[in-house]
Amino acid sequence: MPDGNGNGNSDGDSSPTRDALEPKIAYAPGGGMAARVERSNAWRSMFRHPTLDTPRGRALQSFSNFFLHVYPVKVPTRVLRMRYSFRLGFIAAVLFVILVLTGVYLMFFYTPAVGSAYGDMQRLRTDVGFGQLVRNVHRWAAHLMVLVVALHLVRTFLAGAYKRPREFNWVIGVVLLVLTLGLSFTGYLLPWDQLSYWAVTVGTNLVQYVPLLGHTLQNLLIGGAQIGQATLLRFYALHVAVLPILVVLTLGIHIWRVRKDGFAVERSSAGVFEEEATARPAPAVPATAPASLYGGRTRVLGVVDRQSVTAEERAVDDTVFTWPHLLARHVVVALGVAATVLALGVAFAAPLRGLANPNLTPEPAKAPWYFAGLQELLAHFDPLVAGILVPGGGLLTLVLLPYIDRNPSTVARRRKVAIIVFLGLVIAALALTVIGTFFRGPGWRFVPPWRHWYVEL
Amino acid sequence: MATSRRQFLRRGWEIGGSLLALAAGWTTYESIRPLAGSATGAKLKLAGPGSYPPDTATYVVEGRLWVANTGTQLFALSQKCPHLGCRVPFCESSGHFECPCHGSRFDIGGEWIQGPAPRGMDKYALSVDGANLVVDTSKVLPGPDRGAKAFFKPAKGPSCVPGG
Predict the structure, then answer these.
(1) B contacts of A242 (beta carbons < 8 Å)
(2) Beta-carbon contacts below 8 Å between A and B
(3) Residue A359 phi/psi, 5° resolution?
């Protein structure tokens, strides 16, 4: 018998069960090479179902494809709209894939050693086919990933998509943001030039302000008292192995939960889902029902989570097949993202300053742009406040947000306070980052970018 | 109520798993923590005390430190700014240490004058061995608090940081 996934129990081509599942008419007719390959046992052992333009055929595309298992078979129609989520989560995932591909390429030409790392970067420019371009794309994709993940967080907040039942997925998202920053920051040191050396010096020195554990954490991070070979090796291992593995695992859980939670909230009728879930009346007991069934001895056949029931009971007409509707859109967006980073890589080269020199601090020495706001804050406030309380408190608040904000509504007009406070903090962080990145010169003095450009990305 | 076999086994798994996680965490920490003095820690033998004129700072590249003579005392000052780790150069014209990164300034004795640095410049233990100075870079002494003004003298000339 065929199972729920449409797989027959027979191995033979002549099996009536298999033929019933895969009508011969669906295979390419004719005697051409392509058609014969498609009809062959070898082909059908790999691709078990032909492309059938029927609802069942489209479902089989998802069921029988390893890679499409990340998607549900059907998605709510609203998911297809661009402005539904601006595809920010998907774009971040695409950028991560681009980073992995370009990063693996770069690994073939790079040795994480103080004596050779800078030379390897120079050789990427001169001796490696597409070496400079791949490095540029890697750099731009890294910057964009930080930006897109941050925007994804802001959009998720504004949509109220961190509320029940998505609380934990929001927490996972915050973890992914931290991992993204970690990935970008550890990669920053690898060129071993003046820019990377001093940016990482400033960045790692932020850690020393953690009360009690600051110096231990800093030593653990850089592998000693000063940035050197141990630091480069640590950052390399974190950058190419530890953090990517953590991102893949965490991203897997994140996407899985998005599916389980029925995708993001409906923007047009936000809040309804919540009310459905919490105010569902108990099923009425039919007057004619036998006492043995309802009032007497009963047997529990299964326990179904209430949220899952709600998600399942959405209007079935409001869904479309993932393949091809959502998949086609994702392919277009992925190509757009790839084209964007490629264009940026062609237009703007990743910087490479002189060889790292611990005895020569450039003026000014700035942390990477996503930490420049923190650096700006440190110029105004006590290190305990600017280095620990603000970033640590901010991160903790983000993690606890879904559990602090008990307002069940996802409608903006019923969440005015939360949205105003959140946007105020976002604008403050943005202003600090812009000032630290664009408006600071030697001695951390205020220098407008139109007077002198002290920005390095 | 007596503990059932299932409860006992479950608790055993929980405790065993926790101990295993703890052991794994500790082993990882022990493996990756830097050994003491692996980056610095050498004892540097330098020229004798008479080699450092008053109110000047001499850079010692091997130790990434300054030997500063305040006129009354010698100090071995770490070149690392206590704010965010930039190298702090000595400005001959002003007679102060001036950090180019974020504008912190220190007097010849490494005491804080202005800027975001939380304290004065860190020091290394300094001793005299016969005709030589010996700096023990394994012993870092945190810089003086911001209020310290024992060696402060006003800037004798212009700052080395543009606009400073």
Answers:
(1) none
(2) 105
(3) -100, 10
Q: From A206, which residue of chain B is nearest by alpha-carbon distance?
A: B84
Instruction: Considering the domain delimited by A79-268+324-361, tell me its CATH architecture.
Output: Up-down Bundle (1.20)
Where along chain A do its domains lie? 1-47, 79-268+324-361
Tell me if chain B has a CB within 8 Å of the CB of A358: yes
Question: Are residues A442 and B38, on separate chains, in Cβ contact within 8 Å?
Answer: no
Query: Over 70: is that where the pLDDT of A296 sits?
Result: no
Q: Model's pTM, two decimal places?
A: 0.81
Given CB atoms, is B32 within the 8 Å cutoff of chain A?
Answer: yes
**Cross-chain Cβ contact A220/B29 below 8 Å:** yes
What is the structure's pLDDT at A240?
A: 97
Domain ranges of chain B: 1-34, 43-141
Both tokens assigned to B142: 């945190």
Task: Assess B136–A contact: CB distance below 8 Å, yes or no.
Answer: no
Contacts of B86 in chain A (CB under 8 A): 198, 201-202, 361, 365
Spatial contact of A174 and A398, defined as CB atoms under 8 Å apart: yes
The angle subtended at Cα A173 by Cα A169 and Cα A177, nearest 5°, is 170
Report residue A237 as tokens.
């291992």
| Predicted confidence (pLDDT) per residue in A13-71, tens digit | 444 444 455 455 456 667 788 888 888 889 888 887 777 778 888 888 777 788 888 88
Q: Does A336 touch chain B (CB under 8 A)?
A: no
Average of per-residue pLDDT across A127-156: 96
Length of chain A as a residue count: 457
Q: Would you call B68 helix, strand, or coil by DSSP? A: strand
Nearest CB to B86: which of A361, A380, A382? Answer: A361
Strand order in the sheet with B112-114: B90-91, B96-98, B105-106, B112-114
Q: What is the pLDDT of residues A187-240, one digit of tens each?
A: 999 999 998 998 899 888 888 888 888 888 888 999 887 889 999 999 999 999
| Residue A101 touches chain B, beta carbons under 8 Å | no
Gap from A24 CA to chain B (nearest CA, Å):
54
The whole-number pLDDT of residue A294 equals 47
- How distant, in Å, are the alpha carbons of A162, A242, A246 from that of A166? 5, 27, 21
- Residue A251 and residue A90 in contact, taking contact as beta carbons nearer than 8 Å: no
Q: Is the pLDDT of residue A242 over 60?
A: yes
ipTM associated with this complex: 0.81
Contact A359 B64 (CB under 8 A): yes
How high is the mean pLDDT of chain B? 88
- According to the CATH classification, is domain B43-141 in 2.102.10.10? yes
